[in-house]
Structures are given as structure tokens and as C-alpha cells.
Amino acid sequence: MNKFLISIIGPTAIGKTALSIKLANHFNTEIISADSRQFFKEMQIGTAAPSKKELSAAKHHFIHHKSVEDNYSVGTFEKDALTRLNKLYNSHNIVVMVGGSGLYVDAVTKGLDDFPDVDPEIRTTLNKDLETKGLAHLQQELQNLDPEAFKAIAIDNPHRVIRALEICKGTGKPYSSFLNKAKNIRPFKTITIGLTADREIIYNRINKRVDIMMDTGLLDEVKQLLPFKDLNALNTVGYKEIFKYLNGEWELEFAVSEIKKNSRRFAKRQLTWFKKTENANWFDYQTPVKDIIKVCEEIMAS
């Protein structure tokens, strides 16, 4: 197998984008984004999408190619990404993938988990529970039924919580028991590069990034999206908190503090997910890129 996918993983604000560009330039190749929030063209500042300068430094795919009004699932992304990879491998032996959305990364590298069909009435009931009892109630249910899934999935995303619960209730088995089964064989070898740091450093970097987002116009970006606030794509950190400010529920200072807090929680869940990645090569975020390139080249040559 002489085709390689260098998959860069790690928590938000750790420096994945910068590393991906350096690796893409070194290997004279292109970048696929597996960050589900950066797909949407209306969400640039709050998702820390690559800047125009970064986008021009290396060819990127799946950045701002959809609208928040589009229904774009992880299953569709898997198909689109594999199709794009097949084309890229016609002219490149190596492609770089970068993203903090663990499910989307796994969809490309391993394939999605296969779940049994369940009674659609279960989802209808859970959606009603979400409306009447709130997300916290569903989160508690999931924690009781499947503590492992509760720790691993994006617990602030009601669609992910409902999906896990409907499998638990519909099969009588934990959602997590269906994860990480044998997946499809891929026509490339994945080299996983993980970036990490002490938790205090990660949290400080997140706090600084949020301040930069506010300074560069996050509030105005979210104002433009207020008519779409109920869409799934916008039920995410950095947007839902500002919506509460715009709706008069919170003061702006408190909303910003909540973005920082929820971003730190998101980073913690990312690390929990990514630490389970088999054969990942973990590096401190300040590791010189030449050291990371050396490891990649050694794996390719082995």
C-alpha cells in the first residue's frame, strides 16, 4: 500500500491547522478538513476556520463548502471525502487530513459504525422529551444507560444524545457496544499525528482564542445568523451562547465566559475520544515540525 493519509488530531486551539499546512507543503500535497463546524460558509470566526492566508498556503477541501441551511450528515461526508481522496491519490501519494471532530475523522479512516434499525417512535418520543424536559434530562438518561457513551460523544449536541439514547432503548444494549467494530478496509494507510499539551496550557490557549474571536467580529457574525439560530449547525459552542445574549437572557461578558467554559469542556471530550485512537503518534504542541516529518517518513518507509 503506497498511499498515505496523515491524519492530524487533537483538542481545539492546539495548533492543528498550522501543522497541517507545514506538512502539506513539505509533502507537496493537499488538505482535507474533517472539522464538521468548518463546513459551513456562514460560520468562519466562531469555528476558527483557516484564514485566507492559510487557505492560500495549501489547497484545502471541505472548508465552507456548505450552508447552515444544508442538511449535511457524517455519512454523506464519509462518501464525499473518500471520493475526493480517490481523485487526490491519482496525483499524490500522500494527503493530509485535519480536524477536531472525532466522529468525522473516524468515518474517513475506519468507516462508520453499523447500527441496527430501531422503532422510529423512540426518536419521536425522545424529541418530545427534549422539548418538554430539556437536554439535561436526556443527558442524565444517557449517563444512566451508557456511561461510556456519555463520556465520549458530543454531549451538548441534542442530536447525538438522542441518537445514542434511541439505540440504547431500541436494542436494550449500550450505544457504545456498537462502536469500533470491524470497519471497511481503506485503500490507504493512515498515519495519525496527535498534538497535545498540559491541560492548563490547552485551556489558556482556548481562552485567548475566544478573546481573539470577539475582537475580530464574532458578535457581528452571530447577529447575521440570528434568523437561523434553531438550525442544528448553529447549536454549537460560540454561537448558542451569543444567541442567549442577543435574546436578552445573558450579559455579553457572561456569554463570553460561557464560550470559554464550554470550549474547555469540548476540548476535554475531544481528548477523551482521540486518546482511544489506535497507533496514534502523540507530540507536544511545540514539537519541531521536522521531528514530526521524520516520524511520518519512517512509518512510510517501514
From TrEMBL:
Pfam families: IPPT. Residues 35-38 are annotated as: Interaction with substrate tRNA. The keyword Nucleotide-binding applies. One of its GO terms (molecular function) is ATP binding. ATP binds at residues 10-17. Its EC number is 2.5.1.75. Keywords: ATP-binding, Magnesium, Nucleotide-binding, Transferase, tRNA processing. Substrate binds at residues 12-17. Its cofactor is Mg(2+). Coiled coil: none annotated. It catalyses: adenosine(37) in tRNA + dimethylallyl diphosphate = N(6)-dimethylallyladenosine(37) in tRNA + diphosphate. The keyword Transferase applies. It is an enzyme of class 2 (transferase). InterPro entries: Dimethylallyltransferase, IPT, P-loop_NTPase. Monomer. Belongs to the IPP transferase family. HAMAP family: IPP_trans (MF_00185). PANTHER family: TRNA DIMETHYLALLYLTRANSFERASE. Catalyzes the transfer of a dimethylallyl group onto the adenine at position 37 in tRNAs that read codons beginning with uridine, leading to the formation of N6-(dimethylallyl)adenosine (i(6)A). NCBIfam families: miaA. This is tRNA dimethylallyltransferase. It comes from Aestuariibaculum sediminum. The lineage of its organism: Bacteria, Pseudomonadati, Bacteroidota, Flavobacteriia, Flavobacteriales. The gene is miaA.
